[in-house]
Amino acid sequence: xxxxxxxxxxxxxxxxxxxxxxxxxxxxxxxxxxxxxxxxxxxxxxxxxxxxxxxxxxxxxxxxxxxxxxxxxxxxxxxxxxxxxxxxxxxxxxxxxxxxxxxxxxxxxxxxxxxxxxxxxxxxxxxxxxxxxxxxxxxxxxxxxxxxxxxxxxxxxxxxxxxxxxxxxxxxxxxxxxxxxxxxxxxxxxxxxxxxxxxxxxxxxxxxxxxxxxxxxxxxxxxxxxxxxxxxxxxxxxxxxxxxxxxxxxxxxxxxxxxxxxxxxxxxxxxxxxxxxxxxxxxxxxxxxxxxxxxxxx
Length: 298
Hints:
elongated, 9 helices, single chain, six-stranded mixed β-sheet
């Protein structure tokens, strides 16, 4: 691959990271002829199935796209081997996936798929010692931190923690929920927290996203200890709870190619045909043309 193309992929990756856009970086690590790609070829795959770059022809792209979206959902890298029909000498193993692709011309590919997910964004409101300690701790954990001062600054974030000890806390909770925060933490006593929530008309689902008193019950007393308890609750939600599920991009729909039987991901570039009010998707232009010809002759 040329240096120009490598730079383009690298720059695009940096743009997506800066914009907090999830993507998968795909790199061909082995190509056994006959294939149209070579070791070192790269591509970026977005959550909608779009492929930027080149890691193989139409048939290989469908297999790569499906595996990449799976890696994005799981948040784990995977080595994908795309084999022609009948070649199953490469066993599946942890971290490795085998796909038998009947469309391939005879070669095989090994492609390493690395998901790039933005760090959790924690929005912290307040200028209190607890807020300061939590911001520092979130930085140590590798989370992105955004400091907010008022209701107008509440935005879309993985989690919102309100540690202002007063002010328009109810309005901040409402704004955080409306912006889709999966976790809203209010630093308050049980009595004061219940009083603030009583001002809001929350559904059961919304109430489940609000944590007050905030943090795990570890007997925390000092601002630093309370920050640790909040951070621990965030870690639990991000690693194993609702925050992890809500942060994962929703995969696009799939369809079965009516000609070859391959499952294809429906994306902006997927071959498509509408016949008699029904929609059909295809692995490539060859299957689409064959289907159109069969329908025309029917």
